[in-house]
Specification:
about 150 residues, about 30% helix, alpha+beta, single chain, binds zinc ion, 3-stranded antiparallel β-sheet
Length: about 150
């Protein structure tokens, strides 16, 4: 058996085992070879890499092993951009607004009622508090949180 490193029209690399050089040529000519990654039948030898193998190692005459998996990222570009945007928004708010902590619902109401000087504030509110504020017409917005913020 001879091992050839093969490549397809889209430059995917994979291995194929053949009885002989003529066996490869014959299979390629008849379009029996195809890329395991994209299915392209335009397969050619990338590099001569003959190697010996015993018959028991190789079940088929043209066993093509898929190339190692591509590295993958967990976060898509789109998610990354969105996350960066949210982070920027949050940083803008925390830089320009006053942190009133747990007093947020109280202060937000006072500002809304014009009892105190209007300003941007941020702080903590429970879901119920935020909902109550929204129902009273107080313009509150949730700030995006990130898993690495801690609590
Ligand atoms: Zn391919």
């Amino acid at each position: 058996m001879i091992r050839y490193q093969l490549t397809c029209a889209a430059a995917h690399g994979f291995d194929g085992w053949f009885r002989s050089s003529a066996d490869f040529d014959g299979q390629a000519e008849r379009g029996l070879l195809s890329c395991p990654a994209c299915g392209s039948a335009e397969v050619r030898k990338a590099l001569m890499a003959p190697a010996l193998a015993t018959a028991s190692d190789v079940p088929g005459p043209a066993l093509a092993a898929p190339s190692p998996a591509e590295p993958v990222t967990l976060v898509s570009e789109k998610d990354r951009a969105l996350r960066a945007m949210l982070r920027e928004l949050r940083e803008h708010v925390t830089r320009t607004a006053e942190d009133v902590g747990d007093r947020f619902p109280e202060v937000a109401r006072q500002i809304h009622a014009e009892e105190i000087e209007p300003r941007s504030v941020y702080g903590r509110a429970t879901f119920e508090e935020a909902k109550a504020l929204a129902e009273e017409g107080v313009p509150v917005h949730p700030l995006p949180r990130f898993p690495d913020d801690g609590n």
